[in-house]
Design a protein that fits this description.
The complex is a heterodimer of chains A (302) and B (90). Chain A is mainly α and 302 residues long. Chain A is built from 8 helices and 4 strands; from the N terminus they run αββαααββαααα. The longest helix of chain B has 41 residues. The radius of gyration of chain B is 22 Å and the shape is rod-shaped. Classes of the chains: A mainly alpha (302), B mainly alpha (90).
């Protein structure tokens, strides 16, 4: 049998099973009780309010701490037991270290500046990578719904990532944003740094035209705050939402059980796509752009 | 019912609101991904073209390709997220 026939038969069986399930179970109508946004709701586990600000411990805090501990533990552990003939874990970490040092930092920063900023950019990469990867491990964090084993109430297994909450990418972005301005002012002096925002080739232009372009440049620097943070946040959140909807959320929401059979294989495909590409790519992008911003603020020409 | 009354007036404002939210999500996720799709295709197409012309540049182009891919692909998610905000939170 040719490959084409096998693919066609496989696809036919896939469709037939879905149609059969639709005929058996039918349509239960829209489900109003299931709220997909509640999967991302942060339930306070330990309520702490200081001066009107909410410092409650919730699952985002747990993921934040887990990602930080995992990053520190893995890197310290690998550094302590370095051997000449690396095993697979050490080889993988060395490859990632080489990527952060030579491709990400070395691509935009040189010499003293690269030596100074490499620890920060490397830590950004590893922390975001661990946080994204943790986001695809089901952990018992959903305290809204529990199940019991032997009288013990256990929260449902759910996926969530620290980076799927806008607050955390935003704080990382603010740190990067402030540090590249500080580094630029330190390298060139305040006046020269702000003058360097203007693109070269405007010497002949009137002051009004220069002012207008300067305003656009100021806006573009503020837009970096949004684009850098929302890129990471939206990628991870959209990935989790896709997994939620494909892995059964859509079938429950619309009340059509057969839709679950149709979308469940897609959930596997998206899971592989998210774990294999998006999680690493977003960590890479965030740290590369941080390095590019610091390099751009300190380089002589615009 | 008075035949001169427009049919629109008979629709409750709740229905209009939920329809608006659904349109926001559909336009956000659907139209937004058109632009990003064209952009991602363009990046990979250009990269294949460049490697076909200069195969020795392959390793240099790889990191630029992923940078361009991630920057372009994020545009689809911006619109998607704003559509979701309109649908679930507005």
């Amino acid at each position: 049998m040719s490959t084409k026939a096998k693919v066609l038969i496989g696809f036919g069986v896939y469709l037939a099973v879905s149609i059969l399930l639709l005929l058996i179970f039918g349509n239960d109508g829209k489900n109003e009780a299931f709220k997909p946004q509640n999967e991302f709701k942060l339930e306070p586990w330990l309520s702490i309010h200081i001066a009107g600000i909410d410092f409650s411990i919730n699952k985002a805090v747990l993921y934040l701490v887990l990602a930080s501990l995992l990053t520190i533990a893995v890197m310290v552990w690998i550094a302590r037991r370095m051997v000449d003939r690396p095993n697979r874990v050490q080889a993988a970490v060395e490859m990632a270290y080489d990527l952060t040092k030579n491709t990400i930092t070395g691509g935009s920063l040189q010499g003293e500046l690269a030596r100074k900023w490499f620890p920060f950019i490397g830590a950004l990469f590893f922390w975001i990578w661990f946080s994204n990867m943790l986001g695809f491990l089901p952990l018992p964090t959903n305290t809204e719904h529990t199940f019991s084993i032997g009288g013990l109430e256990i929260p449902s297994f759910a996926i969530y990532a620290a980076t799927a909450n806008i607050a955390i990418p935003l704080v990382l972005t603010l740190v990067v944003w402030l540090s590249y301005h500080v580094e630029g002012i330190r390298a060139k002096g305040a006046g020269a740094y702000f003058k360097s925002w203007l693109p070269p080739g405007l010497e002949e232009m009137s002051p009004i035209g220069k002012g207008a372009i300067f305003v656009i440049e100021v806006i573009s620097h503020f837009v970096r705050l949004i684009s850098l943070s929302v890129r990471l946040f939206a990628n991870i959140l959209a990935g989790h939402l896709l997994l939620l909807f494909m892995g059964g959320g859509l079938a429950v929401l619309l009340g059509i059980a057969a839709l679950g059979a149709l979308t469940f294989p897609l959930a596997f495909a998206f899971f592989i796509f998210e774990v294999g590409l998006v999680a690493t790519l977003q960590a890479f992008i965030f740290s590369t752009l941080s390095a590019i911003y610091i390099g751009g603020a300190t380089s002589a020409s615009h | 019912m008075d035949p001169t009354v427009l049919p629109l007036a008979a629709v409750s404002s709740e229905a209009v609101e939920s329809a608006g939210k659904a349109i926001a999500l559909g336009v956000g996720a659907g139209l937004g991904s058109i632009g990003a799709g064209i952009g991602v295709g363009f990046i990979f197409g250009k990269e294949i073209e460049s490697v076909a012309r200069q195969p020795e540049m392959k390793s240099d182009l790889e990191s630029i390709r992923w940078l361009g891919f991630a920057l372009t692909e994020a545009v689809a998610f911006y619109t998607f997220i704003f559509g979701l905000i309109a649908f679930f939170l507005a």
